Amino acid sequence: MRLLRHLLSVLLLPFVMVAIVPRWLAAAWAPWDTRWQSGDALAWLGRGAGAASFVAGFALFAWCVTLFARVGEGTLAPWDPTRRLVAVGPYRYVRNPMIAGVAAMLAGEALLLGSRVLAAWCVAFVAFNHAYFVLSEEPGLERRFGESYRRYRAAVPRWLPRRTPWDGA
Prior knowledge:
Elements: H1 2-12, H2 14-28, H3 41-70, H4 97-113, H5 116-145, H6 147-155
Helix pairs in contact: 2-4, 2-5, 3-4, 4-5, 5-6
């Protein structure tokens, strides 16, 4: 049952954002979108950077999902949140590494295809999530976790990682 909860949250949230929406946008905007020229050296560089960004983003995302399950005893879904504050692993450097991982996958897709439409989708995704975190997620975390979250929030940046890991003190 626990595995099903995690699969459902991943399929309904990040999978839709990284797979379904980009495919729909790429198809819907194809006549106006850009693509790499096949033999161009810049295209190969862009595709390589895109593949690396996608793989790194996926690895970060998967690590965060694992931490939510093991440490937080919950999922990434707002309807089944963590029961404990997750402030280990990449969360010691930045408060939202899971969203950063998804954004890296979206940027990777845009680079892989040379798509301005997918790059715009990546920017919109980050902007929407920033607003969601500021207006809803962070106040909810403060209500759920109180002083421990306030200390964490004061020490660990929202989007740009710290140089050194937060030690929880």
